[in-house]
Amino acid sequence: MALEVYLVRHGKTVFNTTGRLQGWSDSPLTAEGKAVAENLGKALNGNIRFDAAFCSVSPRAYQTAQLILQHQGQNDLLLQVVEEVREYCFGGFEGERVKNLHSLIAQERGYPDAAAWLEAYRHADRHLLAESVSRLDTLGLAENESQFIGRLKKGMAAIAEHSPAEGRVLLVSHGMSITGILKSIDPQSTLYQSVPNASVSRLQYDNGAWRILSVGEQYGK
Questions:
Q1: Do 10 and 200 touch, CB atoms closer than 8 A?
Q2: pLDDT higher than threshold 90 for residue 1
Q3: What is the model's pTM?
Q4: Phi and psi angles of residue 4, each rounded to the nearest 5 degrees, phi first
């Protein structure tokens, strides 16, 4: 048996609901966000036991992981924080409305509207959003593609190193981060779009290599 990672996106937050960019900023889980995390834990209870648990440094990921473990029956399992799997850094665009950013990028890249830009971005063979935001950020803090994917790979390597060689581990991360992780393993595995809140993407790690088992499964619905 190889190592299996249950890669979960955090529950829905206030910023998710109001359409604002979160990135390295944070906003609290909504009642719905807490409920889906609890339901995921209940759905796993009795079926899955984790040998280790990890989450990003962001409070929304930490709280989601706590709720999953609490309702899955492993509230006493040590929850380890891995900073490298936090969300993409939007720099000076943190907290901006999502639609405003996409409109700005569409204009800057010469697309007729945000919908046309998003269609091109979803199906691109590279992270055009990260490249666009890093170029437009006047603070110079937003990550480019190589910086973003590079730290995600570093985080996944740390998780593999601090996990048992066999068994199951929980990892709670973020929408863009999960997409970045999946595409770094298999570029054809998903489009450039976030999986649903509290969904599970299962990964396998064996002999130094990652493999995707499933993408964006929703438990307890």
A1: no
A2: no
A3: 0.97
A4: -120, 125
